[in-house]
């Protein structure tokens, strides 16, 4: 190897390194980074400035229109509010006959109403009431006064003579000429009104609303009627020269709503005007704002565009230098590594890299050849991951590509999974030793691989260990399913016969359904594993299970039978220290389970439930199951056992023997016998008056000792056990007889009233409800 490398190094040492590559990269990147930025900056400055100024003008005009609409809405709301008050029952025809001197309560109600009306709208300053009957008077929230001035009376009566029921006016007696008020006649809708409600608008608040029409601090806003009877300015009551000139300029425009530019005193204003209709009269608003205030953002944006462009240019220069260094440094280091001397200069760096690349390609081919030798191990690992579902995150296409890499055709192919479960290892004592399970599984996998690959082209045998072997087959999709099933049955029979003869072990084979989608392969193996749990433990030693039919039939016909009586007898035998009887009862328990279905699944589930009952009994007896049985997972150990005899031996060795030994060391047999006698006595005399003290005296012990022993042995205290016996017998009498409730209570040793309470406490319903539910 060194003889090949040395001439190569001698050949590349003649080149000398220089910085020409860095200079080229710097100039190129600087051009790429700077020119587009400059073009974009100039374009934005030229185009965006004009467009932005026009957009700001349009935005300003739209803003004025929106705020004018808001003013219109507030005035309309004020009109609607006042019109509603005109129809208030307090202002009906009865008001003509009211005596302000004697009808005190009605007068106070009018005061309150006027006070409420003043607060009904933020623009209102004052609300007054004028009545011409029985005598002309005006009334506000502060009081009322009779009118004697003929001129004032005539002014107020002119409001009644107006042909409109509601109207705006600035001719209110005692008010300034620039004060506007809303007048409505009362009663509302009457053809002969006898009074009016006058709502005077607060000038300051109206002025604040007008200022919103000009969003800038500079400028002016005018509001006036179409006939010029009154006007209101945000700068004061008297029109300035600028405002008078503005109105003259406005008169030159005939459009209802528009905007124009107006120049006054070397200042250009953007003027927006429009009209709003108020109760048949035309109101005009004119808003003038300096153009410099509107376009101020354009000037700021222009400056910022220039600053950002210059900053971008400087940043482009800096980044170009930085990026050029970052690009050239790896090339410099790479050339230094290839030449072995950084001071050596070369005329063409990439020519040197190209030659070295060819050299590395040759070495890559060598490594690829070595990788081909490891391909079988990689293939085995891939199919193991596929079968176990670790590749479900991949797409269908990705899995197909990887299978093609390992020589598997996936187009128009159907797939089937077979799961082999070997049993009978415990019967091979003398031939195999404990710990040879993996060796036996490996031998069986080799037998299966040899026979299946003789018959099929695409076969993968997967060793799951623990006597479990999986086989994945792929066949052309055009083959008929009936032919394939017959062919598979013949193959399975041959495999079972061969394994029986060579290894002397029994074989159960689960055959999955056929699929065309490779992503469903993990589901096939999972279904096959589930189907193995339904092998018939009492049937033939060798079995073939079709997963689709087996899982469907077992799910639809699964038996719910569980021998609870034997469960309790087994627990009782273990508590009594009767180990042999407990083992015999477990054997009988397994036979009973077989009546509900002799499959491995049924028996294993029943045995797991029995294990849970025994662990619970240990906990009730005051034992810690973790300390009693150790930190091992008993349920996991039991789930791994496939043969009934092995399950029975495991129970005797790992569970019953340990439990009984602990019970013997903990429990006083004499005390256990006393408790058993008490239990028998309770079952025979539950209908009589019984107590803990009387039972303790009867059997020659103290109440404290009997209570503690009863709780330790039976898991419940004395009174709860007695109550449970009585309740169970009462339930039987309620269901099976027509005895009255009080007769049932007396039959089980309770008073009628107490029986109802205790029965509802334990059962959640009354005895009568229980009887109705069970009829």
From TrEMBL:
The chain crosses the membrane at residues 21-48, 304-323. This is HTH-type transcriptional regulator YesS. Residues 676-773 form the HTH araC/xylS-type domain. It comes from the Bacteria. The gene is yesS_55. Keywords: DNA-binding, Membrane, Transcription, Transcription regulation, Transmembrane, Transmembrane helix. InterPro entries: CdaR_GGDEF, Homeodomain-like_sf, HTH_AraC, HTH_AraC-typ_CS. PROSITE patterns: HTH_ARAC_FAMILY_1, HTH_ARAC_FAMILY_2.
């Amino acid at each position: 190897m060194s003889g090949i490398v040395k001439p190569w190094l001698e050949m590349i040492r003649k080149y000398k390194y220089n910085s020409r590559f860095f200079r080229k990269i710097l100039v190129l990147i600087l051009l790429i980074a700077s020119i587009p930025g400059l073009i974009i900056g100039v374009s934005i400055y030229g185009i965006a400035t004009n467009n932005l100024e026009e957009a700001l003008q349009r935005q300003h005009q739209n803003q004025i229109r929106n705020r004018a609409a808001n003013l219109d809405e507030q005035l309309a709301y004020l009109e609607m509010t006042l019109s509603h008050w005109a129809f208030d029952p307090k202002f009906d025809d009865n008001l003509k006959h009211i005596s302000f001197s004697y009808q005190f309560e009605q007068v106070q109600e009018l005061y309150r109403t006027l006070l409420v009306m003043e607060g009904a709208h933020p623009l209102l300053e004052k609300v007054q009431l004028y009545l011409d009957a029985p005598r002309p008077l005006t009334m506000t929230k502060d009081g009322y006064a009779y009118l004697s001035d003929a001129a004032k009376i005539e002014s107020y009566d002119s409001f009644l003579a107006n042909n409109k029921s509601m109207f705006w006016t600035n001719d209110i007696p005692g008010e300034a000429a620039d004060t506007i008020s809303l007048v409505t006649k009362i009663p509302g809708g009457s053809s002969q009104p006898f009074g009016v409600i006058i709502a005077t608008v607060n000038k300051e608040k109206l002025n604040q609303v007008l200022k919103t029409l000009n969003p800038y601090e500079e400028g002016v806003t005018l509001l006036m009627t179409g006939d010029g009877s009154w006007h209101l300015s945000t700068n004061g009551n008297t029109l300035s020269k600028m405002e008078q000139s503005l109105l003259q300029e406005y008169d030159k425009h005939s459009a209802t709503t528009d905007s124009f530019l107006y120049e006054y005193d070397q200042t250009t204003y953007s003027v927006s005007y429009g009209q709003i209709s108020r109760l048949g009269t035309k109101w005009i608003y004119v808003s003038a704002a300096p153009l410099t205030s509107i376009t101020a953002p354009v000037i700021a944006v222009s400056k910022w565009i220039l600053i950002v462009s210059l900053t971008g240019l400087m940043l482009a220069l800096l980044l170009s230098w930085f990026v050029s260094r970052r690009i050239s440094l790896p090339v410099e280091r790479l050339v230094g590594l290839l030449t072995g001397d950084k001071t050596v200069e070369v005329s063409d760096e990439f020519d040197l890299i190209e030659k070295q690349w060819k050299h590395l390609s040759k070495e890559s081919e060598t490594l690829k050849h070595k990788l081909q030798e490891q391909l079988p191990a990689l293939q085995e690992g891939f199919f193991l991951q596929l079968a176990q579902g670790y590749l479900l995150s991949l797409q269908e296409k990705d899995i197909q590509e990887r299978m093609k890499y390992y020589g598997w055709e996936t187009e128009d192919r159907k797939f089937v999974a077979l799961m082999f479960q070997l049993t009978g290892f415990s019967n091979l004592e003398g031939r195999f030793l404990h710990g040879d399970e993996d060796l036996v599984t490996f031998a069986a996998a080799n037998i299966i691989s040899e026979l299946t690959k003789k018959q099929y082209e695409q076969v993968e045998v997967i060793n799951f260990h623990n006597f479990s072997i999986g086989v994945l087959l792929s066949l052309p999709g055009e083959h008929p399913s009936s032919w394939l099933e017959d062919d598979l049955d013949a193959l399975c029979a041959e495999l079972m016969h061969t394994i029986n003869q060579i290894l002397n072990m029994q074989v159960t084979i689960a055959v999955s359904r056929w699929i065309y989608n490779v992503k469903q392969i993990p589901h096939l193996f999972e279904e096959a594993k589930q189907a193995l749990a339904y092998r018939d433990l009492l049937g033939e030693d060798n079995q073939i299970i079709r997963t689709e039919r087996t899982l469907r039939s077992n799910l639809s016909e699964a038996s719910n039978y569980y021998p609870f009586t034997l469960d309790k007898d087994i627990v009782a035998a273990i508590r009594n220290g009767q180990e042999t009887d407990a083992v015999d009862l477990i054997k009988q328990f397994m036979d009973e389970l077989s009546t509900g279905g002799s499959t491995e699944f049924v028996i294993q589930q029943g045995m797991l439930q029995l294990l849970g009952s025994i662990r619970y009994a240990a906990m009730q007896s005051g034992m810690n199951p973790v300390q009693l049985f150790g930190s091992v997972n008993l349920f996991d150990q039991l789930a791994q056992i496939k043969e009934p005899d092995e399950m029975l031996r495991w129970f005797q060795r790992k569970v019953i023997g340990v439990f009984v030994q602990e019970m013997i060391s903990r429990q006083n047999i004499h005390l256990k016998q006393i408790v058993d006698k008490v239990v028998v006595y309770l079952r025979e005399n539950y209908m009589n008056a019984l107590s803990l003290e009387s039972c303790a005296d009867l059997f020659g012990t103290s109440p404290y000792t009997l209570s503690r022993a009863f709780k330790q042995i039976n898991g419940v205290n004395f009174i709860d056990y007695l109550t449970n016996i009585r309740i169970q017998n009462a339930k039987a009498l309620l269901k099976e007889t027509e005895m009255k409730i009080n007769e049932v209570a007396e039959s089980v040793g309770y008073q009628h009233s107490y029986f109802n309470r205790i029965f509802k406490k334990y059962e959640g319903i009354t005895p009568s409800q229980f009887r109705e539910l069970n009829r």
